[in-house]
Amino acid sequence: MRNVILLGAISFLTSSLYAQEEAVKMEIRAKAGLQFSIVRFEAKPNQKIHLNIFNEDEMAHNLVFTKPGQRAAVANAALNLGEKAEEKNWVPDLDSVLWNTPVLKPGEGHELKFQAPKEKGIYPYVCTFIGHGFVMYGAMYVGTTMPELSTDQNIPELARNGKNASDSSSKISKGKIENFKFTAYKGSWNKLPNFSKLKAFKTGESNNGIADTGLAGLSENFGIVFEGEIVIVKKGKYKFKLGSDDGSKLYINNQVVVDNDGVHSMQVKEGSILLEPGKAKLRLEYFEKGGQEELALDMTGPGINRLQLAKQIIKPKKPAFPTGNPIEINSEARIYRNFIEGASPRGIGVGYPQKVNLCFDANTMQIAMIWHGAFMDGAKHWNGRGQGFQRPSGHYLINLNRDQPFAQLSNENGPWPKAEGRDTRAKNIRFRGYSLIGEQRHPVFGYKIGKNLNVTDYMEPQAGSLPSIIRNLRIRGTGEIWYLAASGKSISEDNGYYNIDNSMLQIGFPELDDLSPIIRENSGREELLFKLKIDGQLSLKQHYRWNVKQILKEHTHEKK
Amino acid sequence: MKYLLTYTLSTVLTCISFTSLNASDPVESDYYQIDQIPIPDGVVLETSGIEMLPNGKLAVCGRRGNVYVLTNPFGKPEEVKWTLYAEGLHEPLNLAYDDGWLYCTQRGEVTRMRDTNDDDRADIFETVNDGWGITGDYHEYAFGTRRDPDGNMWVVLCLTGSFSSQIDYRGWCVRISKEGELIPTASGIRSPGGIGLNHLGEAFYADNQGPWNGSSSLKHIPVGSFQGHPGGWRWFDLDAVKKIMKRPANEPKSDSRYPVERERVKELTPPALVFPHGVLGNSTSGFAYDSNGKFGPFKNQLLVCDQTFSVVNRGFLEKVNGVYQGAAFSFLKGFGSGNISAYMHPDGTLFIGGTDRGWGARGGKRFALDRVTWKGKVPFEIHEMRAKSDGFELTFTHEIDAKTAGDLSSYSMSAYTYIYRSQYGSPVVDKLTPKVIGAEVTGPKSVRVTVDKLTKGHVHELQAKGVRSLDGKPILHPIGYYTLNEIPPAEVN
């Protein structure tokens, strides 16, 4: 102990001597899944720090250093910045904030140079952008030695477990239960019975030491108990994952470690136990009532990545939707015309370099969806026969009402034509296609209403840490037409914008001139309408943006 | 004993290989050269449409919705330059150039595109017509043609799945006029693999084995016809259809035969060319033809792709009693992937493209673009096989050896058909072995083969393995598969 202090003192002395010459230089990347690539580092008091912060994720991030113990307070204060968050880069005006980057959009970097404080301590850094602070952080140890990674409470749990995105737990090796024997019983139960009171119909041993329910030779109404020993080399905490269909229970050294009892489909539970070097006694009970039989047991621990002790393996959860062919957006907008979940079969996905995306529905001429971040993945449609609708990648997805935007109403109370069913076409509107304009090749959609009105519909992405979309509608011709800007259960005004349905969607009209919206109740919903009289040409701008308050409500990245 | 058996077997094998592949016997590659055009790294082009542009460049599109323009498409394959012209289209399955625009048929519409600012990339995508429905089922493919002599583009629309039509015009052929209007044209489509026009501007499409289709085949599409699968008949109730077409008076009965149902359902058009399933292919798709004889001796014959077999078959067609029918022959094998699209350049260069995605193909590559050129030597082949009242007349590409061509034992025939039924596909049924009773050499290149019996509706498979050319060569592909929808009347003279 004394040695450690002494060493620390020496290093402190040397470091202050050389503080002028040596700087900590490193790159910290903001990664997908709300993580920093480096979650902790050491520095000496007064040492120069040169950090290159780079955002390689698809959503915006920042990085803020705070005084010791102030991480949560700063992250929370950022959430209360409200409308000012954007201009303040999501950094609250607090003394506890030491240094920070601006909000970095995807692909942006920032150099952060400063001198480490002279006071020793653990200085947190955190992304305070829109709720990320709960999981996206790290710590700078100034003049303080870092503890063992797995016990470091100043870094996210994910990093503590050594699980960076690249570290998959898929590596698995075959283990062996020594002195393995099994005892099988017949019977129908809803819970594991007390096997010691039952008479076995079959017993046996096996050299391969793998728990296999097939050893019972039955497919229903049976139970089986596996017994043996596992060899423990290092002292430490061992984790067991037990999956079964139906019930199972794991005992190590006569203690219940995992209880996965009852009649159920494949279900995984886990538990852990401290073990000493030597042999540990294992007892695994299992029963099957009817249907499928599955039994999987994995063990991890000091020096053991993942050891398989039963016949089946615990499969990683399938991703919610197929991936593998991401359509990446660089300097130009890209189009993905296909079956997109949330739109009719005539969806036209558009991904913009501003990291905002939309799906235009060429059946109703309406924006069906808007979302942030990654655009689309072609995996569903580009593999095999490609059946089905692919959902948008990315985040903060807003599904809009797909009803056609323009219609003739018989009177002010006439019902709006609804987009019902999969391939409902807009009444009296014909899709004309699109052209790609500008350096970024943004599409401008065109359609014709009746015989006399031609519409160009141009969505202009707005860059920012929370990008948004301005829809520019230009109608040429002569006639009267209604425009449905939004509809929902409730439409409420909010500082010149309208909140739709307590969703993340906020709409506004930047240049209204002498047009004024009408909010009406019709067909059990509220509708925001404009009555347009066109004589030559008329333009209307509609802003679609994300309501920060709702994002926070729906997506505070808090640990559950 | 074991030794003896092995010995015998190897002797037999040696004999077989000697008779089937004599070193001096001609092979396809003596006459045609297939070059694989390398697709650049990082490009996935599941080639589904091929078209020449007026500037001498070749446009190709793929199922992922991309369109590339190839500079120097006739040069050395590795020197062909690829440029991305468009992307994001919805599984386009053809390309057609007309009047400054490149047309394509996407799943939901016929679209035309062009480059207006000379950066070699399309920047306008105009919807020409999107008047048919889609529900989102993967079967709902749409294939289109170039303009026919009247200015129309023909589009065939797969059913929703194999059996039913859940939305407008699934299971129909429609035409899109020059003005962009949709004209309902024919019902009865099941699952097309391609559509095109012959040298007269008549439309033919490939339909695949499945319900009401015992085997894959190529079918002629007369206006107002019924192509065999009644799954889409509900659209006879659409006003746009009612105005110009009538629902057939009778529905086809399942578990029947084509000739029987043609008597009952007057609109029913039988397949013009059956490609016997598992023999000539499993999945008939796009086709092309040589309009001026620069691709060899098969002017105006249809060169028809098969996706599964990765081959191109050849079809000779004739009209008998007003109905198209004819003979299918093997033609070329050795393509890179599952052939689905074909384009013949007027100079006699054939481009074939494809992919094996979803159905698998023998070629082995996931996707490919191949180029075929004729080496200038004429293979010894059955050029034409015409139906006669009592048999067939064969004409050859070379002068024939009168002795073998006039020898009855040079020929053998079998005849068979498929059940016309609502179930998926059909076994080969009603097998017959017509006896060859005459082989009269009628000219330096022609033979009249007579048989004891012809059966209406049957595929008549004629093997002419014994026939030799004047210089002693066997026929490169000695089997003709003739779809005998009609038996021609006896000639008066």
Explained architecture:
The complex is a heterodimer of chains A (560) and B (493). Chain A has three domains: 2-160, Sandwich (Immunoglobulin-like), CATH 2.60.40.420; 173-308, Sandwich (Jelly Rolls), CATH 2.60.120.380; 326-555, Beta-galactosidase, Chain A, domain 5 (Distorted Sandwich), CATH 2.70.98. Chain A is 8% helix and 45% strand. Chain A has five helices and 37 strands. In chain A, strands 28, 29, 30, 31, 32, 33, 34, 35, 36 and 37 form a ten-stranded antiparallel beta sheet that branches. Chain A is globular. Chain B is mainly β. Chain B folds into two domains: 35-374, TolB, C-terminal domain (Neuraminidase, 6 Propeller); 382-483, Sandwich (Immunoglobulin-like). Chain B contains four helices and 32 strands. Chain B has helices at 2-20, 239-242, 258-264, 402-405; strands spanning 32-36, 47-52, 58-62, 67-71, 81-86, 95-98, 101-105, 110-114, 124-129, 142-147, 153-157, 172-176, 182-187, 192-197, 203-207, 217-220, 273-274, 284-289, 302-306, 311-320, 323-332, 339-344, 349-355, 367-374, 382-388, 391-396, 412-418, 428-432, 436-443, 446-451, 459-463, 479-483. An eight-stranded antiparallel beta sheet of chain B has the order 18-19-20-21-32-31-27-28, with no helix packed on it. Chain A binds chain B through residues 334-339, 345-346, 348-349, 362, 378, 381-389, 422-423, 430-437, 441, and chain B through 44, 63-65, 87-91, 106-109, 111, 116, 122-127, 130, 133-138, 167, 357-359. Strand 29 of chain A pairs antiparallel with strand 9 of chain B.
Strand content of chain B: 35-45%
Placed side by side, the strands forming the largest sheet of chain B appear as 18-19-20-21-32-31-27-28
User: What is the level-2 CATH architecture name of the largest domain in chain B?
Assistant: 6 Propeller
What is the count of distinct domains of chain A? Answer: 3
- Extended strand count of chain B: 32
Oligomer: heterodimer
- Helix percent of chain B reads under 10%
Pair of chains with the largest interface and how many residues each contributes = A-B, 32 and 32 residues
The residue-averaged pLDDT of chain A reads 89
- Low-pLDDT runs of 5+ residues of chain A are 1-19, 165-170
- Terminal Cα separation of chain A, in Å? 39 Å
The biggest sheet of chain B, with number of strands, parallel, antiparallel or mixed sense and barrel status, is:
8 strands, antiparallel
Class from secondary-structure proportions of chain B = mainly beta
